[in-house]
Write a structure and sequence with these properties.
The complex is a heterodimer. By secondary structure, chain A is α+β, with helices and mostly antiparallel strands. Chain A is built from 17 helices and eleven strands. The longest helix of chain A has about 55 residues, at about 230-285. The radius of gyration of chain B is 17 Å and the shape is elongated. The chains are: A alpha+beta, B mainly alpha.
Chain lengths: ~625, ~70
């Protein structure tokens, strides 16, 4: 249901405005109305916004994400420590934050540079690692070792060129292979790293030759280049080890800072956010010299508490006026849903559609009745129902996401109806119940008796749509919308008359019933034309289509039942073997996933498209109380 | 022959709507993916929109079942 609202006006002394706003903030049940005209933000608001953004930036730099563990107690302790009322406290906080930010930035910068350097060293190490034995074996004062990037196709040509050069320089006739030691590492990029070791006297010539052939010398990253290749290689290895150790140390230091400062900064962020909200309300209140005025909406049943709280703190220095909203104001009144604990989880379905109007219908209770009923009818299996219940129980206990709790509770409702329908259809993991425990259907076995289930779902659709049309009719009357109530009533009468005609023909009832029914049909058509003209006739056809759409409950249920039977048949075909049982389990799992997803989706769709279109009016304002952050608080957007 | 024609009709009754639904869902899915990328809060609505064309294949399925029952 939607809670009744009062229009509220609070007058007080401008000197006490901050205290009154603070009291309203603590009270947390007033939807404050801010003037529509543009107002440039005050200097205090700008400072608060800037400091808040700075704190959030630091939290993100610290990678602190533990908003879920934040409790009211932590927040209350911080609230007692920080008094925003003291002049200049925000700039003081800002200065402390700047000092802390500098230290944090220096840590993060060092980590960034080190990570970059480590990345370069790791790339170099990929080469170095392969050349360590070669470089160690060849290292001597008479020899010069060098590494070169060479394109794969020209590798052999390069080697032949070096050999020819060595032969020409030495003037000897021995096999040049003996004077040239080399090692090749093939890289993925179509290049190779060629390590060559030649006599020191020949190095300059070889260097010229290599460059002339397009080879590029390989060098250790900056800061790790040494005079001899062996030293460079060892420096890269050492650098990698030291860097990893320093990175680990930095990560530990940042982690400690995060654990120590994350909750403090987060609570500061929330307090700044709350103070900013108060500042916005203060500056948007109408001030007239010595007095101010704050306007808003409050649930009628909370009025008494507010009066008590204001009078206990301010006595007669605050004047409060309230009244019921006029019919011209209805579209501006925020709608606050208020449902019993058991059906409150179903309110999440209304988040996907525009918020209901203040004088509209809250369909949560109807969804709580029909959604699990339809879903359960589609699943219709005791075994699957139990598994859905277990899943729902687990979800409702989990606090990883705010939606998990309501989703879990909805699944528990679906579980109850799935088990009930499973008993009606005699299904326990398909026909496994029948095989093991001789389970028999209380009503029909839906995989064999298709037509009764189809007829039942169409009847269910007719009943559901009729309820929707009746609610639409009541809405029209309540909002004095003549066309709406006539059209809805006309459609309802025509729909029920058609159902009546069908029953009369089917049950061969006396002719008098036929005459009465046709009379109702004519009355309904007249109302339809009076209410919606040609559009009204089209609306009736649309309603008939909507009724037929409910046949999906039987169709999806039938496919689910057949798939469950197929899963069990795998054991018949493959025998009571590992493969047979595995296949049966896999198909049952697939069927369970399809049952949860398909039944939920189609049940929701039947409500949104078929049912709500008959009465639901969205476009209302959501009730947003001016309240402090509570433990439901999560990461800021 | 009559049985074969009934079986063919049942196959067509579900096959053609299935193809039409697949086509519609592909179009809605690609548009929906773009919308969700821009506005993640519309994901719920998009799931519902994605399920809307399934009505046609479900009705086709029912017609096919009724034909198959005649065969039996």
């Amino acid at each position: 249901m939607i809670r009744e609202m009062f229009r509220l006006a609070i007058w007080g002394l401008t000197s006490e405005r901050s205290e009154v706003v603070e009291t309203l903030h603590d009270f947390g049940l007033v939807h404050v109305v801010t003037p529509a005209e543009f107002r440039s933000p005050s200097e205090q608001e700008e400072t608060l916004k800037f400091t808040r953004a700075k704190v959030l930036g630091m939290l993100e730099a610290l990678e602190w994400k533990d908003w879920g563990s934040f409790t009211d107690e932590i927040l209350e302790k911080s609230r007692q420590k920080v008094d925003f009322g003291i002049e200049g406290v925000v700039p003081e906080i800002d200065r402390s934050l700047d000092s802390f930010r500098e230290r944090l930035a220096s840590l993060l910068e060092e980590r960034r540079k080190l990570a970059l350097s480590q990345s370069e060293l790791r790339k170099a190490h990929q080469v170095v690692f392969h050349f360590i034995p070669f470089v160690t074996a060849e290292d001597s004062p008479e020899k010069e070792i060098s590494l070169w990037w060479v394109k794969n196709p020209s590798l052999q040509k390069t080697l032949a060129g070096i050999r020819a050069k060595i032969q020409a320089e030495s003037g000897e006739t021995y096999e040049p292979r003996d004077s040239l030691n080399f090692h090749v590492l093939n890289m993925e990029s179509g290049q190779s790293v060629l390590g060559i070791s030649v006599e020191t006297s020949l190095f300059e010539e070889i260097d010229r030759l290599m460059r002339a052939q397009g080879a590029v010398p390989w060098k250790a990253p900056e800061g790790y280049n040494r005079a001899r290749m062996r030293e460079s290689v060892l420096a890269v290895e050492e650098g990698l080890r030291e860097g990893a150790s320093r990175l680990e140390h930095l990560a530990g230091e940042i982690s400690r800072t995060r654990e120590e400062w994350g909750p403090r900064l987060a609570s500061l962020y929330i307090l700044l956010d709350e103070r900013l909200e108060e500042a916005l309300v203060e500056s948007s209140s109408r001030t007239n010299g010595e007095t101010f005025l704050i306007e808003g909406w409050i649930p009628s049943d909370a009025m008494e508490q507010l009066l008590e709280r204001l009078s206990s703190r301010f006595g007669t220095r605050v004047l409060v006026q309230w009244r019921y909203p006029s019919s011209e104001e209805w579209h501006r009144v925020p709608a606050l849903l208020s449902n019993p604990e058991a059906i409150r989880p179903f309110e999440i379905f209304l988040r996907l559609i525009p918020h209901p109007l203040y004088r509209g219908v809250d369909p949560t209770a109807l969804m709580a009745i029909f959604f699990p009923f339809f879903s359960g009818c589609m699943v219709g299996d005791v075994g699957y129902g139990i598994l859905i219940g277990l899943l729902g129980f687990w979800l409702s206990r989990s606090d990883r996401h705010p939606l998990m709790d309501p989703a879990g509770k909805i699944l528990i409702w679906v579980c109850a109806w799935s088990i009930a329908w499973g008993i009606a259809f005699g299904e326990f993991f398909g026909d496994l119940g029948h095989r093991l425990f001789h389970m028999e259907p209380v009503w029909v076995e839906r995989s064999h008796a298709v037509l009764p289930v189809l007829a039942f779902t169409v009847a269910l659709g007719a009943a559901h749509i009729s309820i929707g049309l009746f609610l639409g009719f009541l809405e029209g009357i309540r909002n004095r919308h003549r066309h709406l109530w006539m059209e809805r009533l006309g459609t309802l009468i025509v729909l029920l008359s058609l159902v009546g005609l069908l029953l009369i023909v089917r049950l061969e009832m006396p002719k008098a019933f036929f005459t009465v029914n046709v009379s109702f049909l004519l009355i309904g058509t007249a109302l339809l034309i009076a209410g919606g003209k040609i559009g009204g006739i089209i609306e009736t056809f649309s309603a008939l289509g909507n009724v037929l759409s409910y046949v999906r409950i039987a169709a999806i249920g039938l496919s689910s039942a057949i798939l469950a039977v197929v899963a069990t048949r795998f054991v018949d075909v493959l025998g009571l073997s590992f493969l047979g049982i595995l296949m049966a389990l896999v198909i049952h799992l697939l069927n369970l996933v399809l049952a949860i997803g398909g039944s939920g989706l189609h049940s929701a769709r039947l409500h949104y498209v078929e049912f709500f279109s008959k009465f639901y009016q969205g476009g209302g304002k959501e009730f947003r109380p001016f309240s402090r952050r509570r433990f439901s608080w999560k990461k800021p957007c | 022959m009559e049985k074969a024609l009934l079986a063919l009709a049942a196959a067509l009754a579900i096959g053609i709507p299935a193809l039409a639904t697949a086509y519609a869902q592909a179009k809605i899915g690609s548009a929906g993916a773009g919308t969700v990328a821009e506005k993640p809060e519309t994901s719920g609505t998009m799931i519902i929109l994605e399920a809307i064309p399934e009505t046609i294949v479900i009705l086709g399925f029912v017609v096919a079942i009724m034909m198959i029952l005649q065969l039996a």
